[in-house]
Amino acid sequence: MGEIDKKEIFYASIANRKLRVLFWDDGAEGQYKTLFTEIKLGFEKYGWEALILTEKGEAVRLALEENFDAVVLDLLHDSDKKPVGLDMLKEIRLKKPFLPLVIFTIALEMVYVQSGMRGDVSYYLTKPIKSYHDVIRAVEVAIEREKTKEKLIQDRYFSSLGKLAAGVAHFVKNSLWNINSRVQMMLEETNKEDKHYELLQTIKRRCDDTNKFVLSLLQYARRGGISGEKKELNIVEITSDVLRLLDQEIKNASISKDLQVAKGEVKLMGIEFELKEAFLNLIKNAIEAMTSGGKLSIEVVPGDKYLSIKVSDTGVGMSQEVLENLFMPFYTTKVDSIGFGLFDTQRIVQKHGGEIKIKSEEGKGSTFTINIPYKEIEEVANGN
Q1: pLDDT at residue number 7
Q2: Fewer Cβ neighbours under 10 Å: the N or C end of the chain?
Q3: Beta strand ranges found along the chain (DSSP E)
Q4: Of 188, 100, 97, which is closest to residue 141 (Cα–Cα)?
Q5: Handedness of CA 119, 123, 129, 131 (dihedral sign)
Q6: How does pLDDT run along the chain (384 residues), one tens digit per residue?
Q7: Which residues of 10-21 are buried (b: 16+ CB within 10 A; e: fewer)?
Q8: Relative orientation angle of helices 197-221 and 272-289, to the nearest 10 degrees
């Protein structure tokens, strides 16, 4: 993308992204063919993809099954002028509450605008337009609106989370203090050569990490962000430590494990107990997904721009509904879970400047990929 094109993008968060946008308009191959040809070519200048469909059912199916950065819908059916776009809007919004949805129509009547607002449309764009740039603007605004909406809803969760954290922290901290003090006494009375000595040390380390997590949870619930000091870490060593910690659970579940890492040390700046907790959550999730045994694969891949850590399992996989709610706090499909682990994992990764991506297929398994940009690593290392 050239400098001129970059200046045409309003939002910096979108400027360097390759967006994928789905269009539905039953006149895209008829009276509006020239318009949609211009939009498609214009999108290509930005490195964006415009998928233009004329069949309603196919458009809804793809919007629900595939990953698009935005969906643009015509309002009125050309043949009977019925507002089928509103029906499509409601159907998609029901299952994808934060997907940017744009209504793109010739209809200016207020009744349609109001109906679109009630259906939670992200942007209402009317034809005719001056150029494809008007569509670019609409998509930009729609994306930013949905990001803001999602943040507001998450803030409500944080409010509930704060009350929960305050309620349990006192009890958990007292229990940890009791366990930790007794483990310390046992360590002092146990010979280092004793086979139980390492087990006691593991219990003590987990008590210390859990205590730090409780403090971090309280601070985060109060909107204070991650607590703790970042330092240089060997991500291979951290991953291996977590695997050792879960070694017995892996054996009990008849799971084979495969750790693939680059030669030498792979270092980054981060908070050790936070990253351990993130990997622990992902690996435990993978173990629990393999109820009849399977294979756990962990891959550490230093790339050009990102350090990637992939955790894969051959378990039951996840449905589209589960994937859409996976990182929401307190969402769970397990009877013995409170639904906080993956939400906290996402929090930790994002605060380290990274992101999590998921690929999952029911009956075949899932892959979680954590990407942490080297830019973040360098900035922390330089004290910025």
Answers
A1: 43
A2: C
A3: 20-24, 49-53, 70-73, 101-105, 123-126, 231-234, 255-260, 267-270, 294-302, 306-313, 355-361, 365-373
A4: 100
A5: negative
A6: 344 344 456 555 565 678 999 999 998 888 889 999 999 999 998 889 999 999 999 999 999 989 899 999 998 887 778 899 999 999 999 889 899 999 998 877 788 778 877 878 999 998 888 888 899 989 999 998 998 888 777 777 666 666 666 667 667 777 887 888 888 889 888 888 888 888 888 888 888 878 777 776 666 555 444 456 778 888 888 888 889 888 888 998 999 999 888 666 778 888 888 888 899 999 999 999 998 999 999 999 887 777 889 999 999 999 888 888 888 766 777 766 666 788 888 888 888 888 899 999 999 999 999 998 764 444 444 444
A7: eeeebeeeebeb
A8: 100
Fold entry, domain 226-384 = Heat Shock Protein 90 (3.30.565)
Contacts of 78 by beta carbon, 8 Å cutoff, 6+ apart: 26, 27, 30, 31
Main-chain dihedrals φ then ψ at residue 143, nearest 5 degrees: -65, -45
**Kind plus residue range of the DSSP H or E element containing 377:** helix 374-381
- For 267, 275, 279, 283, 306, the CA distances from 237, given in Å and listed in that order, are 10, 12, 12, 15, 18
The answer to whether the peptide bond before residue 302 is cis (omega within 30 degrees of 0) is no
Q: For residue 382, what are its two tokens?
A: 């330089």
**Other beta carbons less than 10 A from residue 52's beta carbon:** 20
For residue 365, how many C-alpha atoms fall within 13 Å in the half-sphere facing its CB? 16
Query: Given the structure tokens 């330089």, which residue do they identify?
Result: 382
C-alpha angle 248-251-256 in degrees, rounded to nearest 5: 130
Q: Kindly report the length of the chain.
A: 384
Between CA 123 and CA 72 the distance in angstroms is: 9
pTM of the complete model beyond 0.70: no
The domain spans of the chain are: 3-151, 226-384
Beta-bridge partner residues of 307: 302, 372
Q: In the CATH hierarchy, which fold is given to the domain comprising 3-151?
A: Rossmann fold (3.40.50)
Q: Based on C-alpha coordinates, what's the Rg of the chain?
A: 25
